[in-house]
Amino acid sequence: MQKFAKGFFVGAATAAHQVEGNNIHNDCWAQEQMQHSSYTEPSLDAVDHYNRYEEDIRLMAGAGLNAYRFSIEWARIEPEEGKFDDAEVEHYRRVIDCCRENGLEPVVTLLHFSSPVWLIRKGGWEADTTPADFARYVRYVMERLGGGLRYVCTINEANMGVQVAAIAERYKKQMMAQLAKAQAGGGSVDGGVQMGLNMEKMMANQKAIAEETLQVFGVEKAECFTSPRTPHGDALVMEAHKAAREVIRAVCPGVKVGLTLSLHDIQALPGGEARAQKEWEDEFTHYLPAIAGDDFFGVQNYTRGRYDADGVVAAPDGAELTQMDYEFYPEGLEHVIRRVAEDFKGELMVTENGIATADDTRRTAFIESALDGVQRCVADGLPVRGYFYWSLMDNFEWQKGYAMQFGLVAVDRANGQVRTPKPSLAFLGEYAPEKV
Known about the structure:
By secondary structure, this protein is of the alpha/beta class. Helices cover 42% and strands 14% of the residues. It contains 15 helices and 14 strands. The strands form three sheets. A nine-stranded parallel sheet has the order 5-4-3-2-1-12-11-8-6. Strands 7-9-10 form a three-stranded mixed sheet. Helix 7 runs parallel beside helix 10 and helix 13 packs parallel to helix 14. The longest helix has 25 residues. The radius of gyration is 21 Å and the shape is globular. The two termini are 20 Å apart.
């Protein structure tokens, strides 16, 4: 094991809604409470990081980490349109100060998936008014907190809605093919789907879901950040990023600005070259005009994606799969860093990379392989400035609830939210530069 050089960030990452608890003013919270929710369980008090951040930051510092990436919850700062909560801003100031006091660099994300309910009522991430609304929130935060920051991510995984739309389209085509096959044979489509779906009930519930969404949000379709996104919505997200970048540079010219994207290690099998190229364009290269002026870029990678002439290909037979059904493939991070560096010439930061597993020895193996790749990139002169493992704690994995174990720290939510560091936390800390 080789430590990174002085100035390199070795840290862990979290997102506000997944760890804080009781984010009652955002869209995720509202959807979790719905009768026809797609969430397996509600977040409730999550892992109570809102009240226990000092303990959690000390755990990171004690293990040797020197940086912490976390997000500010827009719905806490602006629970009603145009009405800001100064007490919540002060909370995040204390988090930033706590990081500094414990020798951790705070790297802040201004939007990590969740949005205020009022924004969704206005049309959400398909509304032309959203970039200006986001910029107003960013200005309020940066005027008050920017002095304590050096790196700010405007938007986490800005391409997530595009990826969700692509998955939804693939699923729709599969379902249509299954339906046609079933109708031809006089049977039902339900048994042809490799998950527990009652298709007749699912179709019948579409009206009920729309009616409930109308009651909660005032619209039949909630255009949340992680909803399937149209090309227009994709362009709006980039406009929001650029507007935020402009505000940050005007208010805090010394702060480095970037965004993060969800990137697979796209690999072409014979005949799949064109499809693989199109996938990489959708995930990364078509964003280059919008991010060309950024100071840094956040690489987020968990696995690879393989493509043949027919499209995406499943993991190889016998491949190790994580709890998320991703292929265990830490080598993908190095591949993605090198590919991104071909086109983006600013600093690079690995803002997320990790594995959901109950076996912490596999987590340490994943981290070791991933960081070996990062160190090769650094040795070759690529401008990689940091690595943030996802995530600090086992937390609320959105619609999958609390079953996914990504954390370096276990949390016993049933018994007082007790934290238990896993060996992987100390293992990651050994890569951090020596503190002086």
